[in-house]
Amino acid sequence: MSESAVIHDSLKLPCPSCGSQLLYSAKFKQLRCTHCGYSEEIDKSNDKVVEQSLKDAASQAVNFVPEALGKKVFDCQNCGSKFMVESDKLKVKCGFCGSTNVNLEAYQHQYIQPIGIIPFYVSRDEAETLFSDWIKKGWFHPNKLKKLAALEDLHGIYIPCWTFDAQTESDWQGEAGYYYTETVRVRVNGQMQTQQVQKVRWQWRSGHLSHFFDDILVVASTGLKQRELEWVLPFRLEETVNFDPRLMLGWESEIYGIEIDKGYQIGEGIMENKIRQMCSAQLGGDTQRNLAVSSQIFSQTFKHVVLPIWICSYQYQGKVFHFTINGQTGKVNGEKPLSWIKIAILVLLFALLIFGIYMLRQSGVLQ
Ligand SMILES: [Zn+2]
Ligand SMILES: [Zn+2]
């Protein structure tokens, strides 16, 4: 087995100065000793973050030994996520669904190792501030939410992702429609009148689109949904560094639950949607019909990377809401419950305003 094929036997990293534990600190962007403050710079090299052929994906899989990272794999009985935590963590709670019904899983698995990682730059303190600022914004959200700012359920998790590159060649054909108006004479109640009628002139067209897709990002997580990642895009993927498990010291991380072939299908779906949009733009017109696109996708490559995400899930009136924070850029987004009382008050105020204007008009104050 080549050196790069196994996750390094870093185990827990003792501090060379005092023997205590080194952890990765997002605040200092360094490996730091929590006891004496000893610090080590992280390696910013990215020479190993290279595209790998999708055809050879199967041969990339190796046996995965989480203990080598000083971590244990937990399996959530509620949502099915598999995530790694520090092995001495006593009480484990699923970061995705909040369930405490998680079991230690003996993890024997063929696994494609990440080649790249974006380290956490947003610390827990910063994440809490970003989050509570965001939750307070907006008029429609219940007051109780503002008090939820004490966020015990905020988890910083390294999320597994696939990125895909591909060259695509597409032939398209369709009809572009252009609006014009015609004046027609019609009989209305026995009287002849002229009317403007909108018509469409159709024009058949065809063409070719050549497009290279770079880094189509697909979540390989079972716990985090694709749209929950898309809420907080983009990442500065060009800052991805060589995968180094030391950057995970003190952090949770998830193991991919969406295999490479399934991930690629999702990626291909994303590409096909974008191709259709681009072909539609080439076809042009005010409106369109019968757009048919036939594409060839080839030279597919992939990278397996892990990305830093702060997630929070909490229950409000029996419903689970999810939020995410981009652990690199600090972008926050997610679901907020609406307050029906506040909406009802707004609707009522609006109705009163309309009624007031109407009354003023009636009384001749407003013309
Ligand atoms: Zn130390
Ligand atoms: Zn769960």
Characterization of the model:
The chain is α+β, with helices and mostly antiparallel strands and 367 residues long. The chain has 2 domains: 3-163 and 215-259 and 304-336, no CATH class; 340-367. Helices cover 19% and strands 40% of the residues. It contains 5 helices and 17 strands. The strands form 3 sheets. Strands 4, 6, 7, 8, 10, 11, 12, 13, 14, 15, 16 and 17 form a 12-stranded mixed β-sheet that branches. It has a 3-stranded antiparallel β-sheet with strand order 1-2-3, with no helix packed on it. A hairpin with a 5-residue loop joins β6 (71-76) and β7 (82-86). The protein is flat. The protein starts with 21 loop residues before the first strand and ends in a 5-residue tail after the last helix. The model is unreliable at 1-11 (pLDDT under 50). One zinc ion is lined by residues 76, 78-79, 81, 94, 96-97, 99.
Notable traits:
single chain, 2 domains, alpha+beta, binds zinc ion, three-stranded antiparallel β-sheet
Proportion of residues in β-strands: 35-45%
SSE order in H/E notation?
EEEEEEEEEEHHEEHEEHEEEH
Largest sheet: 12 strands, mixed
Structural shape: flat
Termini gap: 86 Å
Radius of gyration: 28 Å
Report the total helices: 5
Could you estimate the helical fraction of the residues in percent?
A: 10-25%
Global structural class: alpha+beta
Low-pLDDT ranges: 1-11
Query: Which ligands occur here?
Result: zinc ion
Count the strands? Answer: 17
